[in-house]
Task: structure prediction
Amino acid sequence: MAQIMAFDPDPEMGWDEVAALGHDVVSFNDAGESVDYAQGHKVDIALLVGAEGIDMIKPLREISPNFKVVLFCDAPEIMEIRRALRGAPCSVLFKPIVIEELDACLKRALLKGKSTIKGSLNL
Amino acid sequence: MEAKKLAAAKFVIQRFLATVFADEISEDFYKAMKTDDFLRNLKEVAFSLYTKELARGAKVLFEFLDGAGVDTHKILRFEYADLFLNAGENPVLPYESFYLDREPTLYGEPVFQMREILRKQGLHKDPAYREPEDHIAVEFDFLAEMNRREAAGDHSVANVRSDFGRRHMAWRTEFCAVLHSADKSGFYKALAEFTLGYLFVAHLASLPPETVFPSDPAADLASMANVLKMLPLAKESFLLQPGTIDPAPARAIPTHCYACGALCGMTAKTKDGILMSTSGLQGDIKGGGRLCIKGGNAKNHVYSAYRLKSPLIKEDGRFRKASWEEALDKVVNDFKQHDPTKIGYMRGNDFANWVHEGLFDHLGCPKTTHRPMCDNANRMSNEHNLSDKRPWINYQEADYILHFGMNEVATSYGQRKTAQLKSAVDRGAKLVVLDPRRSETAALATEWIPIKPSTDAAVALAMCHVIIKNGLYDKEFVANWTTGFEAFKNRVMGEDDDLPKTPRWASSISGVPAETIERIALEFAKARTKGAMSWTGLAQVPNGMYATAALQALNGLCGTFDAPGGPSLPFKRKLKPAWGEGQEKPPKGQAPKLDKLRMWAGWAPAYLLDDVESGKLEGMICYFGDPVLSWGNQAAITEAIEKMQFKVCIDAFMCNTALLCDVVLPDSTWLEQSQIKPDWLYDAQISYWAEVVEPLYESRPMYWITIELARRMGLEGYFPWQHIEEAFENQLRGLPCTLDQLKEKGYVITDKAEYYKYRKWGSLNPPEGYGSSGNTKTGKYNFLNVVAQEKGVDPLPNHHDGPPDLATDATYPFLFGNFRILEHEHSSTFSDFGLMKTRGTNPLWINKMDAHDLDIAEGDLVKLKSPWGEIAIKAHPTWDIMPGILGSPGGYGHKRGLEGDPKFPQFGGQNPPGIQKPNITEDMGGTPLLKYIKTRIEKMAPPSGG
Result:
């Protein structure tokens, strides 16, 4: 079971399915609140949505250089994905979330150990 | 929408994507995309789709195709070579293995997963398609096949297709981003947008309709498929074939490493034909069961994402894919336009060299090898004064070890030897290292003695002075097993030139205190078991030959050759010719000696620009090596190659030299081809290199390439073997081992180590049937170099200043020298991600006091300037280098591969020796002066914002 911090600016977004996988999920609609939370709490991995989610990678990595994130896009634009990959996310997935896909992604990301993140690509 | 109809639509789109990513765009396919009908329909659909992501993809694809001109197809071929065949700096790496960890090493876990998935569906990848199973085209083709089956009524595959699509979606999304960032043509950018749009719409279509309402992704997919159907897409899978292939059994294959010249024994473990790991081979004389980091990373070398995959031909300044037939025909036709004695053949390694040298020697091509770039100055002494270029010290028994200008720990030829050196130090043997830099070996040593470059002869001669003056030399050995002692003694004592080579004299030249020289001379002479040796530190400087002779004279005086703890005399078995009974070896042609040095004549590559401008060379075939990065002044070598009318490169990677060539042929790595080779390290053995994995992609071993070239020249009769193993069998005739024994064990030890072999042989040269790299004409150790005497060169060692224009001065006060590091081998390992992770760049070492005086701190960008060039490089202030000396590891500076890839800006270095003076070497053996470049440094302004 992992401590997951989820951020989506969409207030309608629910994370019940993720919690149903057995994880503790704390969710936010405000990026600043998310980062504040991450500074004071143990977070194994962050699920971040959209361009604001990409922007959050930098402050989260300032908290910990190995901070793991999974990004989601609900209207994928290639320039946004290029920007996302510079931030070394564990994965870039589409919304709506396919829970089996996210589950596989989380298992792999959390298996890789606390100190490693996937590489960044300068695109 | 009915599932079958949706599957049919996805089938078309996936088959389209498999087609455009499987290979370069064929002319027919391109023409089909350019028809008015297709374009009109594509435009219409682009403006009618509900999902904006797919609409955007269709629109940019339409815009590109609509605006494409008459030359566009040609440009797409160039772009394909750049993006997918590693001709360009920013390859897209269309493999799931890459995206798994975003590390550019292929053939990872996804390949096994794909094989298993295919197996379960009764399929396998068409072996004729030379890409691995996790290539994006194979995955799209598999999805297309699953959708085809579903559309045909096979509902059992729905879950397989759906599960696969989802689990393998994320990496394909990343691939789109990489493709979009790398493409310069516009076409692949459009395909990236289109593919991303498709993946997203397919994702939406996989969800319950109410989740994605009001969009109708299935309808969008059907509309898109209706347009793509107009293209000539294969109806059946074109990358997969029916039938399952069982996994190949796991194997542990005894073989040898070829990452460097050490040639350590290696066990290569494979799983289903894929190399999984490499480790040391027990009992092997070179590695002694050990591998260094290079050997241990061999998997990352073979499966580097930057391998060359296909023959390439340059047109309009860019590379395009070519078939082997076309490329080889072009090489031979172009070769025939020239006088073969003006076409140089460069071989950077000697893997199965009997075959390729056989051809090019026959043709009369001047040949060069690694030798004149490395240590020919050493050899001009050692190969005439004794019997080998580098008789390794028997560390196991040594009490006192003296190293001049070599870094055994990091650049050892054999991990067994390195381990023995470390053990010797552990048990109390004294290791003294003279080097301008506190190398890894100097750090291990009992004593590091900093010494100015190219002054080693002075120190060694002064040590000889001390030993002779005190009568501490081995009089029995000197009397019976040496020549020229009296002349040497006169030189050392100053009786022939009125200049006694005293420690005080040497100190004024070398910077080594006279007391230190005297002390180590006495310690060395009085030690029970001892040896002294050197390597390229004494070769790549102006006084290389004489410094080597002076150093070796310490062994000659003390009679250490073949003594316990001394330099051991090599004796390896000679292989028989590869040509057996009834087979004719190609006779040698009349290759000219391009460059005449004072002791050696041949092709000294540092003079390339001179040789081209004087008309001696018109072209070059370069096999395994990167002249641009290793032959001297980089600008001069580049200019020389550009001026050549015929240039071909054979390499596993796109090196800087390959970029300048007209034809590039993809070589297999050393783990994809086989050879046998006699070797020696105290004991003698015959070693075997197995073809551990089949040649990847369209790469071919040099053996095959040579025979194909010969066939096109009508010389196939000289290369008669049905298989390379027939040649191996010929080579082993009369030797105490068989090919089967070699294959089973990886090596066969033919002769055990012995001390004082020369007493048995009656000569320092090994007997008939054995080989070593040199030959002493007298059979004894020559204090006086008899070959030099014959050539009218001073035969006795001495200190000589370098040419005045190379000496440091007020404007260029630093001497720069490049050095080797354990993690890399010359210029050949810089696309190995495992090695680059440990040493990804090469900062400039500068003494901390010098850095302080120049206000230079760690990581500062500095300009390193010589009178002949300049580079920008990051500084590394350290106490581990002498004041006044600068240094940096060599081999870096590739424009392609991992160093050139903008996706990985953290990797990449510079080629500082590339600013040395053009067209100059030390004057005896033609070795470039890689460790003697006068320079200055200037601190550069930090990048804006930094």
